[in-house]
UniProtKB/TrEMBL annotation:
Signal peptide (UniProt feature, chain positions): 1-20
Keyword Signal part of the UniProt annotation: yes
Protein name: LysM domain-containing protein
Segments forming a coiled coil: none
GO terms, molecular function: chitin binding
Species per Swiss-Prot/TrEMBL record: Tothia fuscella
Tree of life domain: Eukaryota
Keywords, alphabetical: Signal
Amino acid sequence: MVSSTTVVALATFAIFSALASPILETRQDRPTKPEDCKEPDRYFFDQTAGQYCINLAKDVQYGETCPDVVGHFNNFTATQLYKWNPYIKRNCTGLLGRVPVVINAPGYIYEGQPQTGDKKDASYVPAPIDNGVIASCKTFQYMGWGLDEAAQADLLLTKNGISREQFLSWNRGFGNGNGALALGTYWSCVAA
C-alpha cells in the first residue's frame, strides 16, 4: 500500500519536473547578441535579468515625441521608454521616424504616469528632461500640461524654496523667451 504522502510527493515531483524542462530550454535559447533575433519584427532586448528577443515594439512616426508614444499606449512612462531605448536620449531627441522602439519587456510592471508636482532624486534618471538640465542635478520635479506660468512658478519656485535665477541656472534650456518656466510633460531640476 502506498501512503498518501508518497503519492503527493510523486505528483509534486512530476509537476515540477514537467515545468522545469521548458524553463531550462528557454534559458538555453536566450539570445546573446542582436543577430540572434532573426525573425521579422523581433528586437533584441538586454536587461539585468537576461537577454530576450521581443516583438513588443512600435515603429515611431515622423514628428512623434516621447509623450506621443507614451500616450498612444498609456501603459509605460517616458522614463521607462528611455530605459528600454537609451539611444533616444533623456531629452528624447533620438526618437526618429520609422525607427522601432521597445514598448514593453518581460517583468515590467506599470505603476502609472507621473503627476504634476511629483519629485524624484537623480538616481531615478527621469525622462524626458530638457537639453539644458545640469548634470549635477540632485532632485527633479515633473511638470504636466495645463498649468499657467503663475502656477508653475508657485509649484517650482515657492514650494522648493528656490529663486527664478537658481531654477534657470539649473535648467538652461528654459526661459528662452517662451514665457513659461517649464515645458509641459518634462522633468525639471529643482535642487542641485
